[in-house]
Each structure stands twice: as structure tokens, then as C-alpha cells.
């Protein structure tokens, strides 16, 4: 049975609200999860760079009680660091599991390895921050896909906060995301202050935008490095952040005239077909930055009178480009087009590389808004090849 769109959104909003779920402390003391010495790696412990080429920082609580360390959905007592490879299906105790190979490192060893990898490249670092309904495996899957798809010429770092990875866990995810604000902003500050980091490309998805935007504003205020000028290329994919809040605050705190003049820019990927953000709007009462929903009915009427699609976007401001992926939307929810649609993936690849103009972008009446149209040369069958997808699930 196909549900009407309004009913689907209402049901999804109930799921986002998390009214049927919560988080229990559980039958194990949290201190017991990390009591084993393997949760405290030895300084200088070797890590195979070729086998574990990607980097992560996480505030998730690790479970070190069994031979395989697992990163849980509980809050950790501190940020931990490590290396990982793209997750894969493996047989564990006779059962197939989707698993991320990783190893923990001491903070000093991790920063030393990140510097060595950055120095070997162009001084660029890509930092990926996930959104709602993610676990460590889905986060690392998406980060590995971004690395593979873009061919990024520097280290890729996944920051994993304790999302529940659960459809009914939105309320808990919001709580944990806000709880993690200090952890993430301190980590971003430390990264931005390294004199060997020449450019940071920040990519956030969904709820992750609510960590990224205020953290950048914080780093701009307090970082020793003037203007935090190495945080230059910011990409917000399907951002689940209040659109009016972004309009009010971005220009004053993140996109000041000096920072835009120094090359800072924000690219926002939006879609009117994004069911997850439609549900978030229903829950929060106001439109999200990643959804061009017309909250202002008068503006909607004016667009209809002009014969234009009824889509409303964040106001123009220096340094912001909005890419509307509605017409190339993919997946059950349309919430991850930058990883699932060949046309959107190709645009995203160019933005990461610093190429900010594509012939496939269609101009609109708003100079900062562009549409992506279906490309006959890239039918749906090309999505897998262009986006270099692996694994399962929508993400």
C-alpha cells in the first residue's frame, strides 16, 4: 500500500520524535566497558597505514570486554581517536555482520599520523560529520565512500558522535548531539590550529549541521590562528537545521565579510523530496535549511502566479550557494542525494575539489540557487558507478 505523502510525513514525525523509545543505562556499568587495557592503547603501538588508511575521532563509548572492540551508542567519557578502513560484510561466529575494521590510538600518535599524512599531500583535510540515525559502521561507510568517490588528496577524518542508529531515536540523537557540542568544537579548534593544516573541507549531513555551524563560529572566535582561514570549504548536505536561524546567524558569525573575502564558502544541498526533513519540519514547526518548503504561504502564491515551482530557499548572502537536488532525488527518503544520485554526486565531487561552477547547474531567479536536472547520459543505472557506493542501507 502506498501511503499519502501527508500521512507518511506524520508517521515519520512520530518516529523522529522517538516517542516509543529511550536509552537505558543497561546491565553493564559503563566503567566496565572500558576497563580492559585495550581501551587505552599503548603509545607508539603500530598501525598499518595501508590497511587502515582513514582517520576517526569519536565520543562514543567503546566496549572492550570481548576480542572485538565495539563502539556503542552510549556517550563516552572522552573523545577517542583511531584509524579505520571501509566496512565490509564478515562472518563472525557463524553470522554475517557488517563490520568496520579499526584500531584505537593515543591522541599523540593519532595527531602525529594525521600530520604525516597531511604533509605527504597538499595540506588538505576532509572532516565528515554524520547526522541522525547513524552507528559507527554507517558513519565510516559514508566517510569511506566520500574518500573513494572524491579521490580527496589528503586524509579523511570521520567524527562520530553517539547517534543511536535507530529510526525511533531522533529525540535521543538531538540530546546527544547537543551534549557533544563541546567535544566537537574543541576537536575542530585543535584541528584548525595546526599550522600544517592548510585547508579543512567540512562536510556535514543532516543533524550534523547543528554541530558544524556553531562550532565553526566558536573556532573563529577563540582559535589562535587568525580568522580560522583554513576552514574554507563548508558543505551542508540535507541540513536539519532551522532555516531562519541559519539566515539570522550565518552572516554574522560564520560568513563575515573578511572570511568570505579570504575564500570561505558554504554549499548547501537541498531537496523538496526529502521526507526526513519534511518530518523534522512537522516535529519542529519550522522549515529546515535542507528543504525548500514554503512556510510563507504568500511567497508560495507569488511563485504559483509566476508559473514557478513552489520552492523557497534561504535568503541570499555572500559565500552561500544552494544546490537543489529535487529533480535527481534517490532513495526511499531522498535524504542522502549527495551520496546516491549520480548527478548530485558529480556536483559534490567538484565542490570538494574547489570547483564551484558546473555546466549541469541550471540557474534560477535567485542568483545563489541552482537546480540539478536529470542527465540522459547518467540514468539511475549509473548511480552506483559515479557515486562508488558500497554496503547497504540508505544512510
Automatic annotation (TrEMBL):
**What are the boundaries of the signal sequence?**
1-22
Q: By its UniProt entry, which Pfam families does this protein fall under?
A: DUF900
- UniProt cross-references to SUPFAM superfamilies, sorted A to Z: alpha/beta-Hydrolases (SSF53474)
Instruction: Specify the superkingdom.
Output: Bacteria
Q: Does the keyword Protein transport apply?
A: no
> Which Gene3D superfamilies does the record match to this protein?
alpha/beta hydrolase
Question: What is the protein's given name?
Answer: Alpha/beta fold hydrolase
Query: Could you tell me which species this protein originates from?
Result: Sphingopyxis jiangsuensis
Amino acid at each position: 500500500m502506498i501511503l499519502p505523502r501527508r500521512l507518511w510525513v506524520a508517521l515519520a514525525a512520530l518516529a523522529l520524535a522517538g516517542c516509543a523509545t529511550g536509552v537505558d543505562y543497561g546491565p553493564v556499568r559503563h566503567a566496565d566497558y572500558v576497563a580492559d587495557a585495550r581501551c587505552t592503547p599503548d603509545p607508539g603501538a603500530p598501525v598499518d597505514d595501508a590497511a587502515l588508511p582513514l582517520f576517526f575521532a569519536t565520543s562514543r563509548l567503546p566496549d572492550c570486554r570481548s576480542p572485538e572492540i565495539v563502539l556503542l551508542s552510549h556517550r563516552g567519557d572522552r573523545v577517542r581517536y583511531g584509524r579505520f578502513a571501509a566496512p565490509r560484510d564478515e562472518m563472525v561466529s557463524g553470522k554475517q555482520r557488517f563490520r568496520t575494521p579499526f584500531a584505537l590510538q593515543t591522541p599523540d600518535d593519532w595527531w602525529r599520523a594525521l600530520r604525516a599524512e597531511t604533509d605527504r599531500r597538499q595540506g588538505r583535510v576532509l572532516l565528515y560529520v554524520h547526522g541522525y540515525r547513524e552507528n559507527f559502521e554507517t558513519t565510516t561507510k559514508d566517510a569511506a565512500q566520500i574518500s573513494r568517490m572524491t579521490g580527496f588528496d589528503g586524509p579523511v577524518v570521520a567524527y562520530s558522535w553517539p547517534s543511536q542508529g535507530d529510526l525511533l531515536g531522533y529525540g535521543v540523537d538531538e540530546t546527544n548531539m547537543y551534549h557533544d557540542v563541546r567535544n566537537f568544537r574543541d576537536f575542530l579548534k585543535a584541528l584548525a590550529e595546526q599550522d600544517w593544516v592548510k585547508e579543512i573541507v567540512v562536510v556535514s549531513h543532516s543533524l550534523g549541521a547543528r554541530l558544524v555551524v556553531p562550532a565553526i563560529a566558536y573556532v573563529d572566535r577563540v582559535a589562535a590562528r587568525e580568522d580560522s582561514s583554513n576552514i574554507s570549504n563548508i558543505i551542508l548536505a540535507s541540513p536539519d537545521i532551522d532555516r531562519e536561524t541559519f539566515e539570522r546567524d550565518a552572516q554574522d558569525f560564520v560568513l563575515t565579510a573578511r572570511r568570505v573575502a579570504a575564500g570561505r564558502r558554504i554549499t548547501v544541498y537541498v531537496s523538496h523530496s526529502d521526507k526526513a526533513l519534511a518530518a523534522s519540519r512537522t516535529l519542529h514547526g519550522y522549515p529546515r535549511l535542507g528543504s525548500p518548503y514554503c512556510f510563507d504561504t504568500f511567497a508560495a502564491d507569488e511563485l504559483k502566479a509566476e508559473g514557478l515551482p513552489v520552492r523557497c530557499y534561504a535568503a541570499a548572502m555572500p559565500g552561500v550557494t544552494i544546490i537543489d537536488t529535487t529533480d535527481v532525488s534517490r532513495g526511499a527518503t531522498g535524504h542522502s542525494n549527495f551520496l546516491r544520485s549520480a548527478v548530485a554526486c558529480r556536483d559534490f565531487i567538484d565542490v570538494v575539489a574547489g570547483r564551484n561552477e558546473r555546466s549541469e547547474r541550471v540557474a534560477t531567479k535567485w542568483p545563489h540557487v541552482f537546480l540539478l536536472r536529470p542527465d540522459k547520459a547518467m540514468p539511475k543505472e549509473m548511480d552506483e558507478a559515479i557515486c562508488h557506493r558500497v554496503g547497504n542501507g540508505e544512510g
